[in-house]
Amino acid sequence: MIRKKKPILAIDGPAGAGKSTVAKLLAQTLGYLYIDTGAMYRAITLKSMRAGVDLTDQAAVEAIARQARLSFVPGEVGTIIMDGQDVSQAIRTPEVTRNVSAYVASYSGVRKVMVAGQRQMGAQGGVVMEGRDITSVVFPDAGIKVYLDADLEERAQRRFDELKGQGQEQPFEELLADLKQRDVEDLHRPGGALQCVADALVVNSTGLTIEQVVAAIVKAVREKEVSCQ
Question: What is the pTM of this model?
Answer without folding.
Answer: 0.84
